[in-house]
Amino acid sequence: MKYMMFVCSDTEPDTDPAPGPDIEVWVADNDEAGRRLQGAALAPASTATTVRVRDGRTLVSDGPFTETKEVIVGFDLLDCADLDEAIEVARTHPMARSGRIEIRPFADFEQ
Description:
Blueprint: E1 2-9, H1 23-32, E2 36-41, E3 49-54, E4 57-62, E5 72-79, H2 83-91, H3 95-98, E6 99-105
Antiparallel strand pairs: 1-5, 1-6, 2-5, 3-4
């Protein structure tokens, strides 16, 4: 099953002083196991462009649409057997300690 894993910042990171996992090791391990199909870090939220259409007009604004301190900083496309495996992959991502991870399955419109 495919999952989109959003890697987000967080205003309340983990306070555990133990060293966190290495992102390069996490990427290599999950690529090798075939669980990570693609992923990338994103440019800062200040580079975002928001596009909306209202009353037939295209509205373009700089930056994220919402005022928030938590922003998406990257993503990974996962292929896991089930949600439990996706949670395990997310749990071991370095940003699970200093940020937050959102896992969302792809919609299946054929059901």
